Amino acid sequence: MFRFFIQPQLNTVAQSVLGYELLIKQYRDGAWRMPKSFSAIPAKTMADTLIATVKELSLKVGSVSVNVDRHQIQDQHLIHALIMAQAVLRPVKLVIELIEDAVNPAVTNQELIPTVQNLNDLGIQFCLDDVGSGINTWPEIKSLLPYTSELKYALQNYKEHLSETNAEHHVAFWQKIAAEHKMRFILEGIEDDQDGAWADRMKIDLRQGYYYGKPALMKIYDSDPD
Questions:
Q1: What is the C-alpha to C-alpha distance for residues 18 and 41, in angstroms, rounded to an integer?
Q2: Which of 8, 103, 118, 204 would bridge with 213, disulfide CB 3.0–4.6 Å?
Q3: CA–CA separation, 113 and 120 (whole Å)
Q4: How many angstroms separate the CA atoms of 186 and 204, rounded?
Q5: Phi, psi for residue 26 in degrees, rounded to 5
Q6: Residue 155's closest CA among 83, 100, 209?
Q7: Would strands 125-128 and 93-98 be described as parallel, antiparallel, or unpaired?
Q8: Which of 99, 130, 79, 96 has the alpha carbon at shortest distance from 37?
Q9: Across the 226 residues of the chain, what is the mean pLDDT of every consecutive 10-residue run?
Q10: Could you give the CA distance from residue 226 to residue 216 in angstroms, rounded to a whole number?
Q11: pLDDT at 140
Q12: What number of helices (H) and strands (E) belong to the chain?
């Protein structure tokens, strides 16, 4: 069984919820756990769960985002579900977060761009998740930037180096890319006061992490386990 958990994204200057990220989990061995393999989730399963979830959402926020890999975003079942989900959510924006995991066989940017452009044309926005890690590195993602509305940087990927200048350099680099292309820049993985103060020093307004709210289960059936 798969279900989405929702986690808030905040604008700390406006002190408001910017949007929610939908994080898919699997119920196994008596608990909700991260999927063993994200790419192994059938696109139809993700599509059906997404539609059922957004029908339960009643939100006054700017956006709702969902993670996909390079294979899933090309699957027609999921594309159809994304289009339906945007229709249900309107005027809330649906944002597709392309995760950093490599897929086999590989999907090139040139293969990906027509799909992303088509989703853009339908009002669905595109985000590059965990920039600077996996295959979402520079300059590999450069050709995707014209179709991208948002960059997300995962602080937890560099947690052990938070006090080092390298972390600041990494974040500043991606902040600059986002600013140059007029994109949103979200810092995720903020867990405590120290992380929050660090984000303040970096002048990052858009944030996500346990410090602001843990993912919460979105039930779509009364029989769903807690």
A1: 28
A2: 8
A3: 10
A4: 8
A5: -115, 135
A6: 209
A7: parallel
A8: 99
A9: 95 94 94 87 89 86 94 92 92 95 94 96 97 95 98 78 75 96 96 92 95 93 84
A10: 10
A11: 96
A12: 5, 10
* 3-class secondary-structure state, position 179: helix
CB 202 within 8 Å of CB 183: no
pLDDT at 162 (0 to 100): 65
Residue the block writes with tokens 């977060």: 97
User: What SS3 state is found at 187?
Assistant: strand
What string of DSSP letters covers 71-99? Answer: TGGG-HHHHHHHHHHHHHHTTSEEEEEE-
Q: In this structure, are residues 223 and 15 in contact, taking their beta carbons and an 8 Å threshold?
A: no
User: Using an 8 Å Cβ cutoff, are 43 and 67 in contact?
Assistant: no
Q: Write down the pTM of the prediction.
A: 0.93
User: In degrees rounded to 5, what are phi and psi of residue 8?
Assistant: -75, 150
Residue type, 138: W
